[in-house]
Design goal:
This protein is mainly beta. It is built from three helices and 18 strands. The protein has a 14-stranded antiparallel beta barrel.
């Protein structure tokens, strides 16, 4: 009877969280997670680029949520319009009981074009890209971290001995996951006052993959992501290479009735440092609703510091909880990210001379507008 009761409690414990199990984590450092934001970013820098991001959410709440993402991109825009990307992520929740792992491959098609904004204006550059993503995912349950009532005794303190509850299913089925996206990059000026616009939309889990766990089937509902960013550059001290940008933007995620809206502002302080500030809230239209979090960002660009052609970006951000949940109850969320671009290492048969657009070391998509 005790064994049966233990199994029932475990099963009922997962039923209320069935929908929560099917929700994707939302990252603050989207500029280092382009592949997670949109499959159309596959191969977005042309050269071999490696990204890693780690997120620890709510330090003070029992059941710390940990999310890790790694991606690799490569392409050759001189000889082909195709970009290749690989994305892997792991999400741990429920005090370490439950983890979700996903490994996906991405392929993008990039179509550059030129346009004019007026009769006498110069030709501007633009890029439209579409991407697809196919991967495999699985959920895992760590039974060793579960504690049952028969492990406690009134005659001793703490947990005593193993449980009589038999360990059940440790892993869900291996499910196929499909996603797609589209994005565009537009240039509206060069020289001393360059301006750019970047926007895109994507839908993940379009096939609604079914996850079978504890003899219950939970579909993974689609996640819809949208972004819009504008970049305004200016030359400092008459040095054309010292080009710095102001960046304004918004990002939205929708999944299973939940929504997240992030508004951001970034400034290149100098060639080695970019600082930023973001606001995140659930409701976009209702201005009387509380803001969920304020997020300061700091990004260090080490490409000039180490005298190398490679680009290395290290980013640190912290989400200060200002909603009714309270900072004193959560102790906020921290993220750290790394992006390393290996200049000249790509799929081109001939070695190409790079013409990097200075000022986009944050990792946005503008550097791949080459002609």
């Amino acid at each position: 009877m005790l064994r049966l009761l233990g199994r029932l409690l475990v099963f009922l414990g997962f039923l209320p969280g069935a929908s929560l199990m099917a929700q994707d984590p939302v990252f603050a450092q989207y500029y280092l997670n382009q592949n997670y934001l949109n499959p159309a970013f596959a191969g977005y820098t042309n050269d071999l680029t490696v990204n890693f991001n780690s997120r620890a959410q709510y330090f003070r709440v029992p059941g710390l949520l940990m999310s890790h993402i790694a991606s690799v991109n490569i392409s050759c825009e001189d000889e082909t319009r195709l970009g290749i990307g690989v994305l892997a992520y792991n999400h741990i929740e429920g005090e370490g009981y439950l983890s979700t792992t996903n490994l996906s491959g991405q392929l993008s098609a990039n179509f550059p074009f030129k346009f004019k904004t007026g009769i006498r204006s110069r030709m501007n550059k633009g890029l439209i890209a579409g991407g697809v993503q196919f991967g495999l995912g699985q959920k895992h349950l760590n039974w060793d971290r579960l504690t049952f009532s028969d492990q406690f005794t009134p005659y001793a303190s703490g947990v005593q001995g193993p449980s009589n509850v038999m360990q059940q299913q440790r892993s869900s089925n291996l499910f196929l996951d499909a996603s797609l996206g589209i994005r565009a990059s537009l240039e509206f000026g060069t020289g001393r006052r360059p301006k750019f616009l970047s926007l895109g939309a994507s839908v993940f889990h379009i096939n609604r993959p079914v996850q079978t766990f504890f003899e219950s089937e939970v579909p993974l509902e689609p996640r819809y992501s949208f972004y819009l960013f504008s970049y305004f550059g200016s030359v400092r001290g008459g040095r054309t290479k010292d080009l710095r940008y102001w960046t304004f933007g918004a990002l939205a995620d929708y999944q299973q009735g939940l929504q997240s809206h992030t508004f951001s502002l970034y400034k290149d302080a100098n060639e080695l440092l970019t600082v930023g500030f973001s606001l995140r809230r659930q409701e976009f239209i209702f201005i009387d609703r509380n803001i969920d979090a304020v997020i300061p960002h700091v990004m260090f660009h080490l490409n000039d510091f180490n005298k190398s052609k490679d680009d290395l970006t290290i980013s640190i951000s912290y989400e200060w909880t200002v909603s009714t949940l309270g900072e004193e109850q959560t102790f906020g969320t921290a993220e750290i990210g790394i992006k390393w671009r290996f200049a000249g290492r790509n799929l081109c048969r001939k070695r190409m001379k790079l013409c990097k657009v200075k000022g986009f070391d944050m990792g946005h998509d503008m550097p791949n507008i080459y002609f």
